[in-house]
Amino acid sequence: MPSAYAGMPHATEASRSGMFAGAGWLPAGMSAETTDVPAPIRLDLWADIACPWCYLGSARLDEVLAEREAAGESIVVRHRPFELNPGMPPEGVPMAGFLEAKFGSSEAVQDAHARLTALGREAGLAYDFAAVGKAPSTRLAHHVLTTYDGDPRQRAAVRSLYKAYFEDGLDVTDAATIVDVVSAATGESRGDVQARLDSSTVEVDAAFALGRELGVSAVPTFVADAGTDIDPEVGISAAAVAVQGAQPREVLDQVLDEARRRASA
Questions:
Q1: What is the rounded distance in angstroms from the CA atom of residue 183 to the CA atom of residue 185?
Q2: Domain residue spans in the chain?
Q3: Cα(13)–Cα(244) distance, integer angstroms
Q4: Assigned CATH topology for domain 39-264
Q5: Cα separation of 216 and 163, whole Å?
Q6: Checking DSSP bridges between strand 134-135 and strand 41-47, what pairing results, if any?
Q7: What is the pLDDT of residue 16?
Q8: In angstroms, rounded to a whole number, what is the distance separating the alpha carbons of residues 243 and 239?
Q9: Residue 13 near residue 25, CB atoms below 8 Å
Q10: What CA–CA distance (Å, rounded) separates 157 from 245?
Q11: What is the DSSP letter of 26?
Q12: In 10 A of CB 101, how many CB atoms?
């Protein structure tokens, strides 16, 4: 079972199976090189709402996006669903003892939380692990997020659910909580968000299946792509660049620059 802390903040070239056998991995020590290509970069971010490293990676990405978009660059981000604990019951399980069982001791959990809290603070996050009452099933949250594919409000919905879970201690397995949080973040009515939750799960089920097919095994995973020869089966081109982990801003910048370079090569 993947760990909730699998997305460690360092570059990796591991797990080149599935999609990653064809996608370019960010070479270690590469220098950033900006190429003026008008087409937008598509950035798929495979993540789980219950993953603290995903929250950190997403926040770091937001900082990069703000700078690049202010400079006139177009980057289209899409949330891609991943479940750290796919066998979790829909209501989740109490957090008490859950992480200790996974990490071997309460000291190891405390060390991980202290590290994340410090790194999160640098990115403007306020983790409150003491308030997190359960290890959740995130399938319902992923379902509502997937209904926003292609909608710029998806990023706001993603941020709101991370914050609800990791900072506010809310129950993201609860439909009413999801409706309240996403409605406030997107400006949609509660009824409209509820309708999204009540809609068919075909799209999110297909997205989960795609992640398994592509070999996504750790999160967060960033896949940047500016290529035009998009494979309709997987939605990326041969020019795609992938990197795993809650990467520093400079690495995410390099990933985007490399995606531009490969697309224009």
A1: 5
A2: 39-264
A3: 8
A4: Glutaredoxin (3.40.30)
A5: 24
A6: unpaired
A7: 33
A8: 13
A9: yes
A10: 21
A11: P
A12: 9
Q: How far apart are the first and last CA of the chain?
A: 39
The predicted model scores a pTM of 0.87
SS3 label, residue 263:
helix
Residue 159: both structure tokens together: 């941020």
Six token digits for residue 168: 């506010």
Instruction: Print the SS3 string covering 195-245.
Output: HHHHCCCHHHHHHHHHHHHHCCCCCCEEEEECCCCCECCCCECCCCEEEEC
Q: Using an 8 Å Cβ cutoff, are 221 and 244 in contact?
A: yes
Six-digit token string for 129: 């692990």
Note every long-range contact of 231-236, with CB atoms under 8 Å and residues 24 or more positions apart, other chains counting. Answer: 234/19, 234/210, 235/44, 235/210, 236/19, 236/23, 236/42, 236/44
120: nearest Cα among 161, 63, 65, 76: 63
Q: What are phi and psi of 10, to 5 degrees?
A: -150, 155
DSSP letter at 51?
-
Averaged pLDDT, groups of 10, the chain, 265 residues long: 34 36 51 54 97 98 96 96 95 94 94 97 97 97 97 98 98 98 98 98 96 93 95 92 96 96 90
Q: Where are the alpha helices (DSSP H) in the chain?
A: 52-70, 98-103, 106-122, 139-146, 154-166, 175-186, 190-198, 202-214, 249-264
What is the Cβ-side half-sphere exposure of residue 181, based on CA atoms within 13 angstroms? 27
| Cβ contact 251:8 at 8 Å | no
**Amino acid code (one letter) for 154:** Q
Output the six-digit token pair for 42: 């598509």
Residue of 243, 256, 65, 255 lying closest to 159 (CA atoms): 65
